Each structure stands twice: as structure tokens, then as C-alpha cells.
Amino acid sequence: MDIEVLGAPRVIENGVPITAPTPESRHVLAVLAAWPDQVVPVAVLADELAVHTPPEHARALLHTAVRRLRERFAEAMGAGSVRTPESVLSARPGGYLLDTGGGRSDVREFARESGAGYRAMERGDFERAALRLRRALALWTGPALDGIDAGTWLGAHLQVLDADRLAVLGQWVEAELALGRHRELRLELAGLRGRGGPAGRAAARPDFPYLEALRIAEERVEAIRSACQAPRLTLAGAVRC
Predict the structure, then answer these.
(1) Contact (CB, 8 A) for 90 and 99
(2) Pick from 148, 137, 121, 103: which is nearest to 8 by CA?
(3) Coil, strand or helix at 121
(4) Structure pTM?
(5) Which of 28, 76, 146, 176 can pair with 65 through a Cys bridge, CB separation 3.0 to 4.6 Å?
(6) Residue 200 has pLDDT above 50, yes or no
(7) What pairing do the DSSP bridges indicate for beta strands 95-98 and 16-17?
(8) CA of residue 74 relative to chain centroid, distance
(9) Assign residue 82 a region: left if phi > 0, alpha if psi is -120 to 50, beta otherwise?
(10) How confident is the model at residue 108 (pLDDT cuts 50, 70, 90)?
């Protein structure tokens, strides 16, 4: 199973995208995808579904959503699969778990790439830091779980992801500036701006903090570029012209 949540959510089983049949089942799938291979408590899932239905009906709606999702997984697996819908979306004591079977998760990739980038920054290896941090940023195609009307639990998790994204963006800019790549950086920032949200429509969850961080970075890079072009001007700082 491959899972993407750093943008519009996607869950792919056996090469087949899982299309949730209802908004409620799509919401449940998004929450489980946000915590792959981990038990998500029933209370959390029910609380999330309260954005769709009165709280007293949330648990019944959850059971229906799980059943419908398992039907979609069964269609994707086909006959002879060693995995079953009940093992992929499994009931565990107190909750449910989405089993990736060792598949890809963009959140885990983001953590791996950004962690490697931070460690390279600490060593002063700005070349490697810039490479790994840029890879981490490239995993984002828009706001995390774009299109999902997050409840309390999921909303808090998305805030953490957003904060991590902004931190990586800041460190990547510092690494590129330390290498004296302010000219290339202007183009890279413009490219990242184009990945800040879905094209052709407003993002369901506005990406304003990310876009503001990009704007500040662009202004800083432009100021450095202008200073480097000024005659007989020496920059006092860590960046190179």
C-alpha cells in the first residue's frame, strides 16, 4: 500500500487507488492514512466524524464507513490476494489500523529526508543538507490532506505537519544561501510556490503560512542578490555572493 497525505490524500492498494464512496468514509480513510500502521482509537475517529453527523450517531457512521472501505479494498485486491480487507483495515482493541504492508508513506519519507538534512546542517555539510531538505519539500503537492474538513484531532496533527514543513523550508533556504546559490534559489522558490496548493481552485485548507514563508524567503533572496550586484559592496554575513 502506498499512502500520500502531503497534499490531496491518496491511498493505493495493489496499484489501485482507493476511492471512498462517501464523505464520511473518505474522512475515516484520511485519518487512518495520517497514522499508518498505528492504531487510531475509535474515540478519535468518532470525534472526527462529528463534523458530518451529530455525536450520538458518529460510532454507527464509523462502522458503516469501515464496511464500505473494506468493500473498496476487496475490489482492489481481487481474488487470490494474500491480504484481506479485514487485515488491511483491521479492528484492534479500542480502534482501527491501516496496514501498509511495508509500503510507501510520504510522511515517513518526509521525516527521513528532513532528518538527514538537519543532520547534514549540523555537520556544516550544506551541499548534502540542501539536497535532502529539497527532497523533503518536493514531497508536498499542497496543504496536507487537502479537501478534508479536519476535526479536533486531525486538525492538531495537520498543524504539526505544517510547522515541520515551514521549518524545513527555512533550513533549506539557509543551506542554499550558505552555498551562494541565491540566483538559483529565486527560481526554486518560484517553483515551490506553484506547489503550494491545487491549481485552478482555492485550497480547502488555506496554505497562508507556507505562502507567507515563501514570500519572506523570496524577499530575503532578492535583497541579497541586489546587494551582491552593488559595486564595491561587501556582505557581512554567512552567505556568499
Answers:
(1) yes
(2) 148
(3) helix
(4) 0.84
(5) 28
(6) no
(7) unpaired
(8) 27
(9) alpha
(10) very high
Q: CA nearest 134: which of 180, 170, 178, 183?
A: 170
Q: What is the dihedral of CA 114, 117, 122, 126, to 10 degrees?
A: -150
Residue 241 confidence (pLDDT): 62
The C-alpha atoms of residue 26 and residue 152 are separated, in whole angstroms, by 17
Q: Of all helices (H) and strands (E), which one includes residue 123?
A: helix 106-123
> Side-chain half-sphere of 87: how many Cα atoms within 13 Å?
8
Q: What share of the chain is helix, strand, coil (3-state, %, to 5)?
A: 60, 10, 35
- Give the H or E element holding residue 41: strand 39-41
Say what the pLDDT of residue 240 is.
67
Share of the chain above pLDDT 90, in %: 64
| pLDDT tens digits for range 22-37 | 999 999 999 999 999 9
Taking alpha carbons only, the member of 111, 206, 100, 101 closest to residue 167 is 111
pLDDT in tens, 121-162: 999 999 999 999 999 999 999 899 999 989 999 999 999 999
Percent of the chain with pLDDT over 70: 89
Distances (CA, A) of 213 to 63, 148, 163: 41, 23, 11
